[in-house]
Amino acid sequence: MSKLSGEIRIGTSAFTAAGLIAIAVSTLLMLAAATQSRVQSHSGDKLSFDVASIKEWQPNQPLPRVAIGIRFSKGSVYAPCSDLWSIVRYAYHLAFAAPINGLSTWAKTQCGPNAFSIDATMPLETTEDQARQMMQSLLEDRFKMRVHWEKKDMQVFVLTIGPGGFKGKVFDPKTTKPVSLTCPEDDPFCSKFYGRTTISQLVNSLSTPDGRLIIDKTGLTDTYETNFMWASDKAEASSLPSLPTVLREKFGLLMKPQTAPVDVLVVDHIERPSPN
Question: What are 184-188's contacts with CB under 8 Å, separation 24+?
Answer without folding.
Answer: 184/238, 184/239, 184/240, 186/235, 186/237, 186/238, 186/239, 187/231, 187/232, 187/235, 187/238, 187/239, 187/240
